[in-house]
Design brief:
CATH architecture of one domain: 3-Layer(aba) Sandwich
Structural class: alpha+beta
Strand content: 15-25%
Distance between the termini: 78 Å
CATH superfamily of one domain: Calcium-transporting ATPase, cytoplasmic domain N
């Protein structure tokens, strides 16, 4: 029987020897191959659980889940069953067209995202049988000894047993922007994931140094795997548009069934033949169902998706186009979303002055200002010493090639110092030529300092940098513009206070010091001369402040949810205008408080907050769930593995496309291809346009269909001949309905949409006011059509077929002109969003040609049972069809009175 090592409960809390003993492995030899094979049987391969591809048939079947499509299938089946093959064929053609459009669009989105699921296989160096071999990461087992070097991806969760200047980029897992220095000392049991610096986690990257670690978890047991499992478990929410269209479809279904049974039964009771009664019921079913709705909704959403793609936003679900338009809350990550995800020097504190640094994001571009003036000569001299010391005490590299390309590598903090120094003409490679480096005293994570020793004319020049508390405590003097001044205990306290004020602003701090030694054997950290303190930050992205301002104007709350420290989060929140500098403490919540507030049911305190710091992935899920339970429509932005569960749980997840991980993109409904927060605001605007357009064409389609139902119903009750035949109704629904509706669906929208508050999450697609408008407009159209038919029979003495042609053409033109009633302001007859929409005019011209073809084209007129109405007939048709447009303002007033 294969034995299983007794794994330590918290490997980060055990010393190296205890961890090695627990996994029964020698750090110098590793596992033997046979033992590795045995453990692979027990633990399985080091891979994530496979995600099944969504089958083509599944995507196709999803197109038939719409209630409207189901109703169309029933209507088509009934028509075919009663030998009305033309009607049945036409209905099924509608279904095929709609489902093909939906299938092709969704298939492209699904397949593009499935490509993101294919993780590249990586190899790693492992100790096996006393030697170093290169194996696939999938072959690793707990107990394996893995060797790490700069540039490697960590293949499994490791407890580090050796670390030489080792740093890892863990932003994909933790959200922290800065590289994490690694060491091997044991930590406390309750150390949180963010602070387990003696661990290396799967999926993170080594960007400096070398190391060795023992595998303590593989596959789904890694921290990466646990988050992956949360993504699988987190259920995506049905989008607001899906919910509203479902509600509308269900109402239509019941209405169609009720009307068909009622009118069909009434026809039988008044003595009509069974077949004729069934034909009337089919006509009503066809009239009541807006056949164009699925097609127009699908195309409008698809066009919205294509528009978003042109604006650098990739939509992976059609209905998600609208979701951002309904969003009233954005939970956004800080690092890389609101900030640049790179360090920059912003403040320098010298003995004689505080210097503000601007433009230090690019080499040779920074400006240094002291009280809004250039530094005085004496201050500038100390400034140059500080920058020179910073570039000497570094392992980073910065050069500008002959073609202007920037060549940079190294720790972001060290690079920030090199970039700032370059603006003063101080370059590391030139300084090293003047003062060659003799040796480096590597960074000590416990002492929080490092030093480099250089050959100089005056002796051994020592450059030191580190945490202020470490450097200031060992300083005996401070550099001023007039020489070095002794530093006593009181002076050190004052310098620490200056450093703490920088920390309160959320800046990362480094103290810079120098000294001279007679030879290399001296202590580099005793009797230091403090030069100054450097304040660095991950600066806010350009344009974020304006984007947040637009969100506020549009009634959209922006909430920062980050794994970074509270002071850093607060500083950035103020910088981007998320909160005011004088914001109350209730606007800021630390991750440690989130669980307690949730347990105390203090949802109001959480909903009032605008900045959440030190938040775990599980807490992000809880916050999203809280907002959703309170009725908010939530968008969540993120890029790392740690963001993936929340991205999937949100109403719409927004992943960063440039720096985002594959798992984050897979979990999202939208991927920003430029990583710009302002693109989200554009998406919100586009989403509102799409919803407003959908609402317009739904009102338009339903008012047209209501008029058809009323025409057939009133004629049936009166015992008159059918004014419209089923195939004629279907023709109208696919021609005079669909083309204008499509034009409404692709309109540019009102320019005032982003000045309005978001819709209520519970608001239906159609409100009571909309339904009243649909009903009244439908009545006006139906009365105009029936009046035209009655006039043609009683006054013009037209026969049945010609009278039906009059009613058909009147309805067709009335529905075409009815599109102008969809303008927001009925007082603006000429200049409005409808008349400015060129697609409206193209649609009307197309419809008019098709109506004339239906009347005058021999084959088509025979199928539709139409005949030329003559000049008198056309006079009646045009006159009656204009009535709905003329009466529209009065209808609007009537509707408003009825609210």
């Amino acid at each position: 029987m294969t034995s299983v090592p007794a794994e330590p409960r918290a490997p980060w809390a055990e010393n190296v020897q205890s961890v090695l003993a627990a996994f029964s492995v020698d750090a110098d030899r590793g596992l033997d191959s046979r033992e590795a094979a045995r453990r692979r049987v027990v633990y399985g391969r080091n891979q994530l659980r496979a995600t099944q591809q969504r089958p083509v048939l599944s995507i196709l079947a999803a197109q038939f889940k719409s209630v409207v499509v189901i109703l169309l299938v029933v209507a088509g089946g009934l028509a075919t069953a009663f030998s009305e093959f033309a009607e049945g064929l036409a209905i099924f053609a509608v279904i095929i067209i709609n489902c093909t459009i939906g299938f092709l669009t969704e298939w492209r989105a699904v397949r593009s995202m499935e490509a993101l699921r294919k993780f590249a296989s990586i190899d790693c160096d492992v100790l096996r049988d006393g030697g170093v071999i290169r194996v696939s990461a999938e072959d690793l087992v707990p107990g394996d000894i893995v060797l790490l070097d700069a540039g490697d991806l960590v293949p499994a969760d490791l407890r580090l047993i050796e670390a030489a200047k080792l740093q890892a980029d863990e932003s994909t897992l933790t959200g922290e922007s800065l590289p994490v220095r690694k060491y091997t000392q044991a930590l406390e049991d309750d150390t949180v994931l963010l602070d387990r610096h003696n661990m290396a986690f799967r999926g993170t990257a080594i960007n400096r140094g070398t190391g060795k670690g023992v595998v303590i978890a593989t596959g789904m047991q890694t921290e990466f795997g646990k988050i992956f499992e949360q993504v699988r478990a987190a259920e995506p929410q049905q989008t607001p548009l899906e919910k509203r269209l479902d509600v509308l479809g269900q109402r239509l279904a019941w209405a169609v069934i009720f009307i068909a049974i009622l009118i069909g039964g009434a026809g039988i009771l008044v003595g009509r033949e069974l077949f004729l009664a069934i034909e009337v019921a089919i006509a009503l079913s066809v009239a009541a169902i807006p056949e164009g709705l699925p097609i127009v909704a699908t195309i409008a959403l698809a066009r919205g998706m294509w528009r978003m793609a042109r604006r650098n936003a990739l939509i992976t679900r059609l209905s998600a186009v609208e979701t951002l338009g309904a969003t009233n809350t954005i939970l956004t990550d800080k690092t890389g979303t609101l900030t640049e995800n790179r360090m920059a020097v912003t403040t320098l504190r010298l003995a004689d002055a505080d210097i503000t640094v601007a433009g230090s994001e690019r080499p040779a571009a920074a400006t240094f200002r002291c009280d809004n003036r250039d530094p005085e000569t004496s201050v500038a001299a100390v400034l140059d010493v500080l920058l020179q010391t910073g570039v000497l005490c570094s392992n980073a590299s910065l050069r500008i090639a002959a073609n202007g390309d920037v060549q940079a590598s190294g720790d972001p903090t060290e690079l920030a110092l090199l970039v700032a120094a370059s603006a003063r003409g101080i370059w590391r490679h030139e300084q090293i030529e003047k003062m060659p480096e003799l040796r480096e005293d590597a960074f000590d994570p416990d002492a929080k300092r490092m030093a480099t020793l250089h050959s100089a004319e005056t002796g051994i020049h020592v450059a030191v940098k580190g945490a202020p508390e470490s450097i200031i405590a060992r300083s005996v003097a401070v550099r001023t513009g007039h020489g070095d001044t002794p530093l006593d205990d009181q002076g050190r306290k004052l310098w620490m206070a200056r450093a703490e004020r920088l920390g309160d602003r959320g800046l990362r701090m480094l103290a810079i010091a120098v000294k001279t030694l007679p030879d290399e054997s001296g202590d580099p950290y005793s009797d230091l001369v403090l030069v100054g303190i450097v304040g660095l930050e991950d600066p806010a992205r350009v344009g974020v402040r304006d984007a947040i301002s637009r969100c506020k104007a549009a009634g959209v709350s922006v909430v920062m949810v980050t794994g970074d420290h509270a002071a850093t989060a607060r500083n950035i929140a103020v910088a981007v205008g998320l909160v005011d500098a004088a914001a109350e403490s209730r606007m800021f919540v630390d991750g440690a408080e989130v669980d307690q507030l949730l347990a105390d049911a203090a949802s109001a305190s959480l909903l009032d907050a605008r900045v959440f710091s030190r938040v775990t992935p599980q807490q992000k899920l809880k916050l999203i769930d809280l907002y959703q339970r309170e009725g908010y429509v939530v968008a969540m932005t993120g890029d790392g593995v740690n963001d993936a569960p929340a991205l999937k749980k949100a109403d719409i997840g927004v992943a960063m496309g440039v720096r985002g991980t594959a798992i984050a993109k897979e979990a999202s409904s939208m991927v920003l291809q430029d990583d710009e927060f302002s693109t989200i605001v554009s998406a919100i605007e586009q989403g509102r346009v799409i919803f407003a357009n959908i609402r317009k064409f739904v009102v338009y389609l339903l008012s047209c269909n209501i008029s058809e139902v009323l025409i057939v119903t009133l004629a049936t009750i009166a015992g008159a001949p059918l004014p419209l035949l089923p195939l004629q109704i279907l023709f109208l629904n696919l021609v005079t309905d669909v083309f204008p509706a499509l034009a409404l669906g692709v309109g540019a929208g009102s320019r005032s949409l982003m000045a309005r508050k978001p819709r209520s999450a519970s608001e239906n697609l159609l409100t009571r006011t909309h339904w009243l408008g649909i009903a009244v407009h439908g009545i006006v159209i139906s009365v105009a059509v029936l009046a035209a038919m009655a006039y043609s029979i009683s006054v013009l003495n037209y026969g049945s077929q010609m009278a039906v042609t009059v009613s058909f053409c009147t309805l067709a033109l009335a529905q075409m002109w009815h599109v102008f009633n969809m303008r927001s302001n009925l007082r603006r007859w000429i200049n409005n969003e409808i008349t400015r929409n060129v697609w409206i005019w193209i649609a009307l011209a197309t419809c008019l040609l098709l109506v004339l073809a239906a009347v005058y084209m021999p084959f088509l007129s025979e199928v539709l049972a139409l005949t030329a109405p003559g000049v008198d007939g056309w006079t009646v048709i045009v006159t009656a069809s204009l009535a709905p447009v003329v009466l529209a303002p009065f209808v609007r007033r009537l509707v408003l009175l009825g609210r």
